[in-house]
């Protein structure tokens, strides 16, 4: 599982943790609902999660990552904030991908750095 966070929004550490958790829960939930064949392996190997950053200030870049994941048949999600604290309502804060095979996710996320 990989979660990509926008750093241009200047979210605090707690906010980033919250957005990351939202993505992980959404991915897990959709994996159950859609019978993701990679879910059991992911659970058995300690539920690994990698958090990456994107420095772009363009929401369309995040949408492109999400759409590329969908195009490659990877479980994915978009996280939009409720707008109650640090960012505006509906702001796209994170994209989550997985659980899927690492090599499949890496094709999309290989150019991003660890948060």
TrEMBL record:
GO terms for cellular component: cytosol. It comes from the Eukaryota. The keyword Hydrolase applies. InterPro entries: Pep_tRNA_hydro_II_dom_sf (IPR023476), PTH2 (IPR002833). It catalyses: an N-acyl-L-alpha-aminoacyl-tRNA + H2O = an N-acyl-L-amino acid + a tRNA + H(+). Belongs to the PTH2 family. PANTHER family: PEPTIDYL-TRNA HYDROLASE 2 (PTHR12649), PEPTIDYL-TRNA HYDROLASE 2, MITOCHONDRIAL (PTHR12649:SF11). This is peptidyl-tRNA hydrolase. The lineage of its organism: Eukaryota, Metazoa, Ecdysozoa, Arthropoda, Hexapoda.
């Amino acid at each position: 599982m990989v979660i990509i966070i926008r750093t241009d929004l200047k979210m605090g550490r707690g906010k980033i943790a919250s957005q990351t958790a939202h993505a992980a829960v959404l991915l897990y939930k959709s994996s159950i609902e859609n019978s993701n064949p990679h879910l059991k392996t992911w659970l058995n190997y300690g539920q690994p999660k990698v958090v990456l950053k994107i420095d772009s200030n363009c929401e369309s870049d995040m949408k492109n990552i999400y759409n590329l994941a969908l195009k490659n048949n990877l479980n994915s999600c978009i996280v939009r904030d409720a707008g109650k604290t640090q960012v505006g309502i509906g702001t796209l804060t994170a994209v989550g991908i997985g659980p899927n095979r690492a090599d499949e996710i890496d094709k999309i996320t290989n150019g991003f750095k660890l948060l």
